[in-house]
Design brief:
Blueprint: H1 8-18, H2 44-49, H3 53-63, H4 73-100, E1 104-105, E2 118-119, H5 125-136, H6 141-149, E3 152-154, E4 157-158, E5 172-173
Antiparallel strand pairs: 1-4, 2-3, 3-5
Length: 193
């Protein structure tokens, strides 16, 4: 009989199956903590930082909804937060380089009104992430980390040397809705803007 999802036996089996320790298949991967009957937490964050990003994301995807179980959720959120911190740094670098190259960030219409390409998370971003999860159910952890740590990104624009930018595919993620403060859900304070 299979162990119940989330039980210590299930977690230990999963950790062995996924080779979370980074050891080759067939090696002893997990030592059960006999005092509490639980497997040690996965080392996803350390491995992610060490460059094993693809493998870590693969393991997290393989967990499906079980990634939200106590003990795994916290570890998975650490990886998602690390990803979001890296994204924010990269967004800031990209915006700086595009600005230095005379790229114009603007609205995606004929008016092409100037826009701020990156709006960092507001003080209420964590509350907004909580609202999203409460309103829509299980929201991808990467999106919640993005809302809390990156903010809104709008890279639509043009460059003076580009005859046409119709085929461009700019990054736009406005999960916090900073450009639309009047369209907040009723439960959200306007201070998030």
């Amino acid at each position: 009989m299979a162990a119940a999802v989330g039980s210590p036996d299930w977690i230990a089996s999963l950790v062995r199956t996924l080779s979370i320790s980074g050891q080759p298949s067939g090696a002893a991967h997990v030592q059960m903590r006999q005092d509490v009957g639980m497997a040690p937490p996965p080392d996803w964050l350390d491995r992610y930082r060490a460059g094993q990003r693809d493998q870590v994301w693969h393991e997290l995807r393989q967990l499906g909804g079980a990634v939200r179980e106590p003990g795994l959720r916290e570890e998975a959120l650490l990886v998602c937060d690390e990803m979001a911190r890296r994204v924010r740094h990269n967004v800031e670098v990209i915006i700086g380089r595009l600005s230095d190259a005379e790229y114009r960030f603007h609205s995606n219409d004929d008016a092409q009104d100037p826009v701020t390409p990156h709006v960092p998370p507001a003080a209420g971003a964590a509350a907004h992430a909580d609202w999203l999860a409460g309103r829509f159910g299980p929201v991808p952890m990467t999106l919640l980390s993005w809302v809390r740590l990156v903010g809104d990104v709008w890279l639509v624009g043009t460059h003076p040397q580009w005859a046409e930018s119709a085929s461009a595919d700019p990054l736009v993620i406005e999960a916090e809705g900073s450009r639309y403060p009047g369209e907040r859900p009723p439960s959200q304070p306007s201070s998030l803007a």
